[in-house]
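Input.
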Amino acid sequence: MESRVDDAKPSSIEKLIDQGGYGGLGISSTAGDASNGKAVPKRGLTKAAIRRVMKVAVPEIRKCYLDELYANPKLEGSSKVKILIAKTGKVTDVTMTKLFHKNVDACLIKIVKDLEFPPPSGAGVVIIHYPFNFFR
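Output.
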């Protein structure tokens, strides 16, 4: 099932993610501080801007998870990444702050490093903590 989320409100996007609306894989995420799970814009990037960029990566991240799910059908869990974004919007560093599975985490880092965000307004380096939940 293909879901269109371009025009969806943020709460609708999260519902689509939670319900597997990106094609049936259970993957959910929220932009914001990893310590409390609440979305908090950091120096010039809004939650909506972060979501727009991150949702582009969902199909590739889904593939990372599915590749490992075939080998381990009970694989479920969560991971968190710390993303450093330059004033140009380019991702300069990605660090796992909560590990999930070695291969999924490595794949996730590679995908996130290739993302490009809009240039943050009035900011130098922007730091985002972004959690992912993987479930069957």
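Residues 1-42 have pLDDT under 50 and may be disordered.
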